[in-house]
Amino acid sequence: MKITITENGPYIAEKDIPVKEVVSVADKDGGVSGYDVQGDAGEPGAEKYLCRCGHSKNKPFCDGRHVNIGFDGTETDYSRKDFREKAMLFRGEVYDALVSDDLCAITRFCDVGSGLGEALESSDEADIKNVLHGGCCPAGRIVLIDKETGQEFEPELDKEIYLINDEPEAHLGPIYVRGGIQVIGADGHEYEIRNRMTLCRCGESSNSPFCDASHLDCEHMKT
């Protein structure tokens, strides 16, 4: 299964990849506890051209508007570095955390409870639960390492695409690529295959093709 980036155009998701519309579920403090799946986007089993410039009138699908607006979808050199080349290590009580801030899509998984930073320093059962939730960050910004075993923690995810509607923030969010799907750059570059990543669909990311939360400042991504 793969997603191919076209030059200054849409993402092409192979027909075998399920694409689903989802809505963020927020807790009382604004953290996101998960996603409510609304249903399939488009016809199941069909190849899908997903808007990358953010200006399509037929979101989430491309309608060719990237040509009209002169969209520049150039992928950055920095985005092509593997996660461990960029990540910093933060020590915790039960889990250590590798964190690459350039991948932050503000999906707010790390804001549940007391917040990931404070929870990392605790061995309290509730805090460990929140740490593990933060370690499910859709953008793959955070990877947890069990201090006792040295094993990385990764949630088990099916190979599929979630199109995030961040309803609590009244914005369309990124394209959440789940389960280790290969992403191919416009020039044929094969990005590191990861269990979790978020692709930009507002057209404004400075870390293209990955989301950097620029959608939160885009009028064309408001719902």
Topology:
Layout: E1 2-5, E2 11-13, E3 19-26, E4 32-40, E5 48-50, H1 65-68, H2 83-86, E6 88-90, E7 95-99, H3 116-120, H4 125-134, E8 142-146, E9 152-153, E10 160-166, E11 171-178, E12 182-184, E13 196-199
Parallel strand pairs: 1-12, 3-10
Antiparallel strand pairs: 1-2, 2-5, 3-4, 6-7, 7-8, 8-9, 10-11, 11-13
Quick overview of this protein structure:
With 223 residues, this protein is mostly beta strands. The protein has four helices and 13 strands.
Total number of helical segments? Answer: 4
Strand content of the residues, in percent?
25-35%
Biggest sheet record: 5 strands, mixed
What general form does the structure show? globular
CATH class of the largest domain, named Alpha Beta
What is the CATH architecture annotation of the largest domain?
A: 3-Layer(aba) Sandwich
The SS-based structural class is: mainly beta
For the residues shown, what is the average pLDDT?
96
Low-confidence stretches at least 5 residues in length (pLDDT < 50)? none
Q: Level of helix content?
A: 10-25%
Distance N to C terminus: 30 Å
The number of strands is 13
In sequence order, what are the helices and strands, one letter per element? EEEEEHHEEHHEEEEEE
* CATH topology assignment of the largest domain: Ribosomal Protein L9, domain 1
How many structural domains does the protein architecture include?
A: 2
- Spatial strand sequence of the major β-sheet: 4-3-10-11-13
